[in-house]
Amino acid sequence: MGCKNCCSICLQCLFGYETNVMLVINNKGVGALFRLIQFLIIAYVRAYQDTDSVISSVSTKVKGNILTNTSIEGVHVWDVPEYVIPPQGEKSFFVLTNVIPTPGQTQSKCPEIPSLVTKCESDSDCIEGQTEVHGNGVQTGHCVQYSDTIKTCEVQAWCPLENDTIIPKPALLGAAEHFTVLIKNNIQYPKFNFRKRNLLHHINSTYLKNCTFDRKTDPHCPIFRLGHMVTEAGEDFSVMALKGGIIGIFIDWNCDLDFPERFCIPKYSFSRLDNKNPENNVAPGYNFRFAKYYKNNKSIETRTLIKAFGIRFDVIVFGMAGKFNIVPTIVNLGAALACLSLVTAICDWVMLTCMKDHDQYVREEHDQIINQFGTSVTRLANHPN
Amino acid sequence: MGCKNCCSICLQCLFGYETNVMLVINNKGVGALFRLIQFLIIAYVRAYQDTDSVISSVSTKVKGNILTNTSIEGVHVWDVPEYVIPPQGEKSFFVLTNVIPTPGQTQSKCPEIPSLVTKCESDSDCIEGQTEVHGNGVQTGHCVQYSDTIKTCEVQAWCPLENDTIIPKPALLGAAEHFTVLIKNNIQYPKFNFRKRNLLHHINSTYLKNCTFDRKTDPHCPIFRLGHMVTEAGEDFSVMALKGGIIGIFIDWNCDLDFPERFCIPKYSFSRLDNKNPENNVAPGYNFRFAKYYKNNKSIETRTLIKAFGIRFDVIVFGMAGKFNIVPTIVNLGAALACLSLVTAICDWVMLTCMKDHDQYVREEHDQIINQFGTSVTRLANHPN
Amino acid sequence: MGCKNCCSICLQCLFGYETNVMLVINNKGVGALFRLIQFLIIAYVRAYQDTDSVISSVSTKVKGNILTNTSIEGVHVWDVPEYVIPPQGEKSFFVLTNVIPTPGQTQSKCPEIPSLVTKCESDSDCIEGQTEVHGNGVQTGHCVQYSDTIKTCEVQAWCPLENDTIIPKPALLGAAEHFTVLIKNNIQYPKFNFRKRNLLHHINSTYLKNCTFDRKTDPHCPIFRLGHMVTEAGEDFSVMALKGGIIGIFIDWNCDLDFPERFCIPKYSFSRLDNKNPENNVAPGYNFRFAKYYKNNKSIETRTLIKAFGIRFDVIVFGMAGKFNIVPTIVNLGAALACLSLVTAICDWVMLTCMKDHDQYVREEHDQIINQFGTSVTRLANHPN
To answer: What's the distance, CA C122 to chain centroid?
Structure first.
């Protein structure tokens, strides 16, 4: 009997369920407020999606040739293997726009470029083995003639030293603004097993041979004129070409994968990433030095040092995909429900403090004590046991 | 006294708490439905973890040698510094599989490669200074003999021009499929102060010297045969070697850090990232041009241009780690609780609409109006004041 | 009339709202517990922000010169274009610290470096066309003298072969620890349209010319001494310089954008990313081989092979920004509310099980059955219909 009793309690515990006793109140003003707040909450809480970050692969290919005619190099045609560094076509590529070449450098000794710290009167001003942070070599301890009037400390270095005080103006390869770059971008959202590329389905080979990107007429053409990108970033190519800089090519793949796949298309935008503001401008622009090494006739290692100014283009792919998933839906739904209960409290407060006919409210409330599904609690209360 | 009254109101406000008046209903069908839905909700809402994205560092090292015998270069052994570009062993590395070399180029003038736009009859067909998008140099304005029968516009360029119409078949370095690459990958989840590498603890030096990755026998060996990866990506190495392509090496570090650290192991997968579909195939495969620069006997700058076809391997590390955290737990718990209240509503609706003995339900409901903890409201209601 | 009735039902449905019937219980102990748990929940659930991941662009510039004096190369000054690979100043840059040069290599035949597998007695021990995984070329099938006492298989390769058994000690370019690197980092949080760089507003040009990063005195100076970074990572530069390694330069941009922009500043940290633990140490440290190509006097392609040991610095930018947003606020608020309802249940349980005066509680409960806003349910129950 004890067990039977115990079992019945267990069953009651397991299969009984609780429901709240509720009041339904009829007041049009408060009721309207109640529905309005409910609507606002449900309208805001829509973030019912599971999300995933984009995984991306980029390859780039620049096209274009430039002819230059300088006193040092003479007539020279620059092609892609010469002005795109590195040549592999990765997602970050550098296009040469201005150069300061220093041909014929060998390991030897020569006077430093004159500056406040390198000028000297006698050997005692130079310290053997000393390396200046902004110097070009290691001092030998001698003070030698740099020109007829100036003496500087001698350095062991790749001589003759580069003199980069005068930057060619206009930029030697300023015509690079007419170059084009084809950007191939494959993305995937692994969580949703979704893959796509920026060469969209409707783009055919004929179109691609002739198109260049234009926000209005060709928004899906993956071939970009360098000058156009720089202009869209709000910069002047001819100015930027002088000292170089960094341009970001942003590809935004934010997609709602509950919609058909064809609505998931890349959006391109461009902006300058380095600082052109001259306030605290250390090393403005973008440049680096590289060298081509030779053996000269006497088998001595010789190099042509090139100070390369140019524009680095960084292709930056970003995006989040969202797709319906039961878990975040429950989380958001639950949160919304909980908020809705707050609405009841707000409405009660409005009712009790703002309404003039407070007494009538209490009286009406009594008359309609019904539970959630219309069963009158008052009827229950008066029911004979 | 006013203060005392005020204080007691405050205390009542602070230490009083509210509890709902509830009905417990005993109906096995509805009760079972109620418990079932509750169980489903709790089973789904388990995303109680705080998450962090992986931070990763990769280095790679390719090994292997190939002997080729061509008419232009003769017998040549290719080693890593020659066919891996760039040589540094970064997370994206390119392995040469096919080459079109053009030795002995110098800055000079020569006839363009014949095409629809470069063929000409007389000088008037060529415009001085013109650069064709797909051309190799800058036109001089002259129309010259390309061969006995064909005349093309002369260009200032690196001459002789490359003729890439015939791609070596089979691929010159097709044997690259036997090369191996060691991938060293260190990851961390900074939020959880968790670090790990893909050289797992139980892997010793002897094993690593001889193993190669195999999904079944050696799933944790970080040394991969190039051919094996391409096969796993569903491609044929000898076909892909002809024109090149991009293979993604995915390392998935998704981990549940509530489990012991040894369960957090990388999962490798491979897939082709570029498009081999020839529909809208601009620049199919993957190739780029680079040059080796020399000074010839007369100290004139000469270069060997190399059109390099090959496979770029992109190591793509991704993953999210989850770990118990009180905040998302509360968020999810709260949401689940709110959802549970919805269950009550569903059960009430089932009860009132579907049950045949509706009247009896109302009667029973009355008999058991008890609050959440068993105190009978009816008893309360009949209690003399 | 039917319609009027119908309409009134609709209106009642639309503008009626439900409110729970509630008990307020006065018990200081349980009340205090109730308020305490409520407070704890609200204190924990503060993650009311929308978040975005950082998008970053990095450029780096190394400065410094080193003089070395070796038997092979003589006196040689190393400058940035020689020891920084690649030279472009990307976010991952390699600084040479030790080299094994092998000058004058040409395509020819020579004996392999002696090892267990390459030593031989006669031609029959060598297989023509065979490539050893750790070998340097392709075997010709001949067994030749390596030294007076040792015979090894002959290989077709870039000869003479590199002998990397002896690593220069101390490291040839160990003085690289005094080099400095300027790191320029621009970040953005696209969702919040927020941009910033690591050259903070208050840093001027004069300061930047002289500062180097120091966690205490110059925490915002973006110029780092290589040796300082390695020390902060817990390593010894002179040891690490021997065989190389990878150092991570972490820039943490975690920001709360509800605070003013000036509080969003980068935090730098450094740690070694590769493994120095010698347990299962395949290819310890970090090295790679590259070559400089020449044509010798007889126009034969010659190269200087360089086995480069050094430190790769990976700049890793990470961070999340948070900003107030109504959606996550509602989600968290809702969840907190739902949790608060759990508190009621806990307090009820405490009340009913732990309190001594259980009977009195039930009696008191009856006396104070009031709804949430003070309307007594008992009064309602006794009200004449």
So the answer is: 54
Query: What is the rounded distance in angstroms from the CA atom of residue C233 to the CA atom of residue C215?
Result: 13
* DSSP code of residue B218: B
**Burial level of A384, CB count in 10 A (0-12/13-18/19+)?**
exposed
Distance from CA of C204 to the nearest CA of B (A): 32
Backbone angles phi, psi at A188, to 5 degrees: -150, 150
Between C45 and B283, residue with greater pLDDT? B283
Which residues fall within 8 angstroms of residue B75, CB to CB, at 6 or more apart?
A: B67, B68, B69, C107, C156
State what percent of residues in chain A have pLDDT above 70. 70
List, as ranges, residues 61-80 from B with C-beta within 8 Å of C.
61, 63-67, 74-77, 79-80
Q: What is the pTM of this model?
A: 0.80
Element (H, E) at B249: strand B245-252
Burial class (CB in 10 A: 0-12, 13-18, 19+), A298: exposed
User: What are the structure tokens assigned to C184, written together?
Assistant: 């320029």
What is the amino acid identity at position C75?
A: V
User: In angstroms, what CA-CA distances link C287 with A358, B197, C169, C242, C311?
Assistant: 85, 19, 16, 10, 9
CB contact under 8 A, C337 and A332: no
B380 contacts in chain C (CB < 8 Å): 365-366, 369, 378
Which H or E element spans position C312? strand C301-318
HSE on the CB side for A255, CA within 13 Å?
26
Torsion sign over Cα B289, B65, C307, C285 = positive
Distance (Å, rounded) from C-alpha A271 to C-alpha A248? 5
Using a CB-CB distance cutoff of 8 angstroms, which residues of chain B are in contact with residue C127?
none
Q: Is the ipTM of this complex over 0.90?
A: no
How far CA C367 is from CA of A371, C201, C347, in Å, comes to: 22, 67, 19
Q: Say how far apart CA A347 and CA A29 lie, in whole Å.
A: 10
When CB atoms are compared, the residue of B31, B134, B381 closest to A17 is B31
Query: Which of residues 116 through 155 in chain A touch B, CB cutoff 8 A?
Result: none
Q: What angle do CA B368, B369, B371 make, to 5 degrees?
A: 115
pLDDT over threshold 90, residue B132: no
CA distance B340 to C359: 31
pLDDT of residue B23: 55
Q: How many CB pairs under 8 A join B and C?
A: 214
CB atoms within 10 A of CB B222: 24
Q: Is B351 left (phi over 0), alpha (psi -120 to 50) or beta?
A: alpha
Say whether residue C337 is in contact with chain B using an 8 A CB cutoff: yes
- H-type helices in C322-370, by residue range? 326-354, 358-367
CA distance C377 to B385: 12
User: Which residue of chain A has the CA closest to B346?
Assistant: A19
A26 close contact with C: CB closer than 8 A: yes
Nearest CA in chain B to C313: B57
> What does the alpha-carbon distance between residue C75 and residue C67 come to, in Å, rounded to a whole number?
7
Amino acid at C165: T
Phi and psi dihedrals of A10, rounded to 5?
-60, -50
Selected for mutation to probe chain A from B21, B339, B376 (highest A CB count within 10 Å) is B339
SS3 label, residue B283: coil
> Length of chain A in residues, anyone?
385
Per-residue pLDDT at B43:
56
Q: State pLDDT tens for residues C40-85.
A: 665 555 456 778 888 888 999 999 999 888 877 788 899 999 899 8
Model pLDDT, residue A264:
92
CB A178 within 8 A of CB A169: no
B338: chain C residues, CB-CB within 8 Å: 334-335, 337-338
Q: Which residues neighbour A295 within 8 Å (Cβ) at sequence distance 6 or greater?
A: A301, A302, B295, C294, C295, C296, C302
